[in-house]
């Protein structure tokens, strides 16, 4: 089976250009931000969001390289994503991400506020200057979803009554909305008909959901080293994800442990055991598989191309991380 | 001479509606943000930015009440302004503003990041849904100017080489851009011709500059109680404003004191004396007067109305604060 690098190969050169542009846009003339920008845009990460935009742009454009506006859209998705990471890490007090120190811990909290605001502002400005009101509306919805998702996540910490529906909605807002709406925006810029826009949205949405669900499984199954951050950090911080919500249905004692915020000795260990030995992880995997089928079906109408093949591999590649940890 | 309350009388009822809308938009369904929203939108303040939008909307609309889009624009200006205050106070570590505790000091820094992001996101969403691309572009420029202004202000702390031009540019970005671009946006929504849009922009810009310049004088002349925060806090924190920049031309020792960040005994006191006893304050006042003349000239073309009279009084009322402290 193909690797992530192989899947992204059709847009590898595009992504190199994008990285250079992002560093120039953010760092230019601002020594204060230069260091943060270098740090942010070199800190690994698959650039999955801009890669999705660029790949879709090639696939709907009959193999033509993405035009200036599609490239700018790809940059905007990465700016929005990075801005929200910088602020989320600050709000969640996370000191490490993908094995690298977060901005507020490497520099300081003031810098993290400034860098995040600056990235959001740049994204807003470039977005408005794409000169397409529909695209502005799609991406402003993403910015709203990210902020709402972060607020709700904060509200629901250690709340054992939250449902799978709450979890799916939060995951949509925090992860899938950006992929869904930017995938649709690619179609808007290419002037595609409404039903094709819907299917691009659907592909982006389900890919985003797989991504989140897989991440939430890995938090329970992977090691600190594989994750680049402490394992089980979601549960520890009171963020209940799909495996934990399924486990709450099975273990009658889990709710109390959560509600008392794992303060009694052995609470966290017992909770981890409940998740790892129950059917929660298996049921979460099944959820991811169903998103995967749905994502691939959404792109059936696309004409055959190297990029279409890569897009159809993408959900599987994301899903496969489940088996690697 | 008229008071601020008298000048704002034509939009008093509009501002009441706006405050209710803002509280509902921000607080609804988010207990976490409810308290912050209540705090933010009750914490005094003249609501000068939405008042300007509403007054201009009435003046260009032949006395008709502002329509839904003009009202929404007014709300957006207040959301953007409030979001930037919340984050600026956090970045500048200010614990008090207008005599009231800032969000990060009353609640905590995480809450301030969330509340500011949420307000920016709401503003972006409502802006995109005004369905006018030109207005989106004007206001996204404001968001960019605010972020750039805050970054530059951070860069230039304790830098004695900054010029009056640097100061004016920073003041434009941090204060005047919002008033200038939202004033122009009122005209765009009313479908006014280009030369009238330019004059609305000019009025908003010069009014914003007066506002900033007056604030910067008061920092040196008013008491802690009058300011609702410690006097001379700008200079102390290394933010050089017009009076200090003029004083740097006159006092050969001031630059060293600034550069060593007022660390030697008596530095800050000597710097304050240099500003207060030199011609810096007088020259700053003259600058404000010239903005005032220019602002009023910009509105000459407006047909006579109660609202036009109020708009022409506004620069004088802002300027008069200089004589009250």
Describe this protein's structure:
2 copies of one chain form a homodimer. Chain A has 17 helices and 2 strands. With 325 residues, chain A is mostly helical. Chain A has one domain (4-318): Farnesyl Diphosphate Synthase. In chain A, strands 1-2 form a two-stranded antiparallel ribbon. In chain A, strand 1 and strand 2 form a beta hairpin. The longest helix of chain A has 28 residues, at 194-221. The radius of gyration of chain A is 20 Å and the shape is globular. The two termini of chain A are 17 Å apart. The model of chain A has no long low-confidence stretch (mean pLDDT 91). Chains A and B meet through helix 3, helix 5, helix 7 and helix 8 of A and helix 3, helix 5, helix 7 and helix 8 of B.
Question: What global shape of chain A is seen?
Answer: globular
Question: What is the string of SSEs of chain A from the N terminus onward?
Answer: HHHHHEEHHHHHHHHHHHH
CATH architecture of chain A: Orthogonal Bundle
Can you count the helices of chain A? 17
Count of all domains of chain A? 1
Beta-strand fraction estimate of chain A:
under 5%
As residue ranges, the low-confidence spans of chain A are: none
Overall pLDDT score of chain A:
91
Question: In whole angstroms, how far apart are the ends of chain A?
Answer: 17 Å
Q: How much helix, percentage-wise, in residues of chain A?
A: over 70%
CATH topology title of chain A: Farnesyl Diphosphate Synthase
Alpha carbon gyration radius of chain A: 20 Å
Main-sheet strand order of chain A equals 1-2
């Amino acid at each position: 089976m193909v690797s992530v690098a192989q899947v992204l190969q059709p847009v590898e050169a595009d992504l190199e250009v994008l990285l250079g542009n992002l560093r120039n846009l953010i760092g230019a003339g601002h020594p204060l931000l230069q260091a943060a920008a270098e740090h942010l845009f070199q800190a690994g990460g698959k650039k999955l969001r801009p890669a999705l935009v660029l790949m879709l742009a090639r696939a709907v454009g009959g193999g033509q390289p993405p035009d200036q506006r599609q490239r700018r859209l790809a940059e905007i998705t990465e700016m929005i994503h990075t801005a929200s990471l910088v602020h989320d890490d600050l709000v969640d007090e996370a000191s490490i991400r993908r094995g690298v120190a977060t901005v507020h811990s490497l520099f300081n909290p003031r810098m993290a506020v400034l860098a995040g605001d600056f990235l959001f502002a740049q994204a807003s400005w470039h977005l408005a200057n794409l000169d397409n009101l529909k695209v502005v509306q799609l991406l402003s919805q993403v910015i709203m979803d990210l902020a709402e998702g972060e607020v709700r996540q904060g509200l629901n910490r250690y709340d054992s009554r939250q449902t799978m529906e709450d979890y799916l909605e939060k995951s949509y807002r925090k992860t899938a909305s950006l992929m869904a709406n930017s995938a649709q925006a690619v179609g808007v810029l290419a002037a595609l008909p409404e039903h094709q826009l819907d299917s691009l949205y659907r592909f982006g949405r389900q890919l985003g959901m797989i991504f989140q669900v897989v991440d939430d499984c890995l938090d329970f199954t992977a090691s600190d080293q594989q994750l680049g951050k402490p394992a089980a950090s979601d549960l520890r911080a009171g963020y209940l994800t799909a495996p934990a919500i399924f486990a709450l249905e099975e273990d009658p004692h889990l709710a109390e442990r959560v509600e008392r915020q794992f303060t009694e000795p052995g609470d966290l260990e017992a909770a981890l055991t409940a998740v790892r030995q129950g059917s929660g992880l298996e049921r979460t995997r099944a959820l991811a598989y169903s998103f995967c089928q749905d994502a691939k079906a959404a792109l059936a109408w696309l004409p055959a191309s190297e990029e279409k093949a890569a897009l159809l591999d993408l959900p599987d590649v994301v899903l496969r991380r489940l088996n690697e940890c």
